[in-house]
């Protein structure tokens, strides 16, 4: 019997702002190579130990990002869409119910999409170690032996080793993120980092959740039963799913159940929860500086820079983080990296769009990036993937000019359909019903100039859309 991988792909990763924002969070970003954290997580559970079709639980806003990144890997999955966020217990319950449909004896491994585990072989070895305990009816988590007294993780106090399933221990206590002094004591006393990854029989987990938190289990199971297919996605029934109590799996199950067990683990792991964690994972020079992109360090040590598209120079600074983007720059003390989340809360309260939105916005057909905006105009660079097309639409308040930079565009404007190539353009009058598509084999790049009294994204009427957007 193989293990069904479940990958939780929600969350905004606000501690890694400005690179990670709610519109394009950290699981879809790369920090240590070409592949993203989500893609690395998917590849981690490919092989003979695992079911070939993972279950990915995500939100509607991320569904096409998930699908595209899976397509790039050549891996198929069941992509399950939550109608709203109800925390990890509900998400895991939905996946367990779906796994149970495949096999009444299914084992499930739950992984966060935004964690880093560079030692895949070590991870697999520990999964095999915990499997016997899961088959024996335990709900297993993986506790990482600390490399330092970190204050950014919760901890697990392991109990005695389970005699029936060597390699797994009982759990004496779960504890929240400690202060520095408490963290040092935890490390000395043999506590483990709480990785938030789990292995269990689907039926056991659902039975325990029904016993401990029926207001989560019952509506989620019903939401799975009433789920509907939408293109290649499975949409959980919104009315019943949103009735579930919002609660983490630790609070709902792990801290209450007598079936909890932990596998003490020493494979490399990080939740990549702050820029300090990214620095920990990065290759460093002799002074402890690390860079992703174009950076120069002078008389500095222990610094991290992420800078794509422009040179960032750091002079005479120690232990700082500098992250640049086209619309925001972050400079922070490395030991205050956890406070970036508070900064995002403050930016959101000030209604700064930079808090949650990137200049580059991804769509199921490609992406667009704002180049300039004024009182009555906006300029965008648009990329349409080969074979993709935008919705048939119109606008009430703006006209548009499209100029093809590269590739081929098939353009519909009311009753006219024409093909444009490089350096050709077309005008879309206000109110005209129009569409753009890429019939070619290379990406279509064009510049769009909007002019009118209002250029917001909500000024759109869709008449036909292959992606089922309203």
TrEMBL record:
UniProt xrefs under InterPro entries: GMPP_N (IPR049577), Man1P_GuaTrfase/Man6P_Isoase (IPR006375), Man6P_isomerase-2_C (IPR001538), ManC/GMP-like_b-helix (IPR054566), Mannose-6P_isomerase_type2 (IPR051161), NTP_transferase_dom (IPR005835), Nucleotide-diphossugar_trans (IPR029044), RmlC-like_jellyroll (IPR014710)
Residue stretches making up the MannoseP isomerase/GMP-like beta-helix domain: 294-347
Domain of life: Bacteria
Entry's Gene Ontology molecular function annotations: GTP binding; isomerase activity; mannose-1-phosphate guanylyltransferase (GTP) activity
Catalytic activity line of the entry: alpha-D-mannose 1-phosphate + GTP + H(+) = GDP-alpha-D-mannose + diphosphate
UniProt domain Nucleotidyl transferase: residue ranges: 5-286
Key word Nucleotidyltransferase present: yes
Signal peptide: none
Keywords: GTP-binding, Isomerase, Nucleotide-binding, Nucleotidyltransferase, Transferase
EC number: 2.7.7.13
Residue ranges occupied by any Mannose-6-phosphate isomerase type II C-terminal domain in the UniProt entry: 352-465
Xref: Gene3D superfamilies: Jelly Rolls (2.60.120.10), Spore Coat Polysaccharide Biosynthesis Protein SpsA, Chain A (3.90.550.10)
GO process annotations (BP): GDP-mannose biosynthetic process; polysaccharide biosynthetic process
Family, as annotated: Belongs to the mannose-6-phosphate isomerase type 2 family.
Protein name per the record: mannose-1-phosphate guanylyltransferase
Organism of this sequence: Methyloraptor flagellatus
Source species taxonomy: Bacteria, Pseudomonadati, Pseudomonadota, Alphaproteobacteria, Hyphomicrobiales
């Amino acid at each position: 019997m193989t293990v069904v991988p479940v990958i939780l792909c929600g969350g905004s990763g606000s501690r890694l702002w400005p690179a990670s924002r709610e519109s394009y969070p950290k699981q879809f970003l790369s920090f240590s190579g070409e592949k993203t954290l989500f893609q690395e997580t998917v590849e981690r559970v490919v092989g003979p130990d695992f079911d070939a079709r993972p279950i990915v639980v995500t939100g509607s806003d991320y569904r096409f990002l998930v699908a595209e990144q899976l397509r790039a890997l050549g891996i198929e999955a069941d992509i399950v869409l939550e109608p709203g966020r109800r925390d990890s217990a509900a998400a895991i319950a939905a996946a367990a119910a779906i796994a149970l449909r495949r096999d009444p004896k299914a084992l499930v491994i739950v992984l966060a999409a935004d964690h880093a585990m560079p030692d895949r072989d070590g991870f697999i070895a520990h999964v095999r170690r915990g499997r016997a305990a899961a088959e024996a009816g335990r709900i297993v988590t993986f506790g990482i032996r600390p490399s330092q007294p970190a204050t950014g993780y919760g901890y697990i106090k392991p109990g005695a080793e389970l005699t029936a399933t060597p390699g797994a221990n009982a759990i004496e206590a779960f504890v929240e993120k400690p202060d520095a002094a408490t963290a040092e004591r935890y490390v000395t006393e043999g506590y483990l980092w709480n990785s938030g990854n789990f292995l269990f029989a689907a039926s056991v987990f659902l039975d325990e959740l029904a016993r401990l938190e029926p207001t989560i289990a019952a509506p989620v199971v019903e939401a799975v039963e009433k789920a509907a297919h939408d293109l290649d996605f499975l949409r959980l029934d919104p009315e019943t799913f949103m009735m579930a109590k919002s609660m983490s799996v630790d609070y709902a199950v792990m801290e209450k159940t007598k079936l909890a067990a932990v596998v003490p683990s020493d494979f490399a792991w990080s939740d990549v929860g702050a820029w300090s964690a990214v620095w920990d994972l990065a290759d460093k020079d002799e002074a402890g500086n690390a860079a992703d992109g174009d950076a120069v360090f002078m008389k500095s040590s222990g610094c991290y820079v992420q800078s794509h598209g422009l040179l960032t120079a750091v002079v005479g600074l120690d232990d700082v983080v500098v992250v640049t983007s086209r619309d925001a720059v972050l400079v922070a003390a490395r030991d205050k990296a956890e406070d970036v989340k508070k900064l995002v809360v403050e930016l959101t309260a000030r209604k700064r769009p930079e808090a949650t939105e990137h200049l580059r916005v991804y769509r199921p057909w490609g992406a667009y990036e704002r180049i300039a905006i004024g009182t009555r105009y906006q300029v965008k660079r648009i990329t349409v993937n080969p074979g993709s097309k935008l919705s048939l639409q119109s606008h009430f308040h703006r006209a548009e000019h499209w100029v093809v930079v590269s590739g081929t565009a098939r353009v519909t404007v009311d009753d006219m359909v024409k093909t444009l190539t490089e350096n050709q353009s077309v005008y879309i009058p206000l109110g005209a019903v129009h569409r753009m598509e890429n019939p070619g084999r290379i990406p279509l790049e064009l510049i769009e100039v909007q002019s009118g009294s209002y250029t917001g994204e909500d000024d759109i009427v869709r008449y036909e859309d292959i992606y089922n957007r309203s």
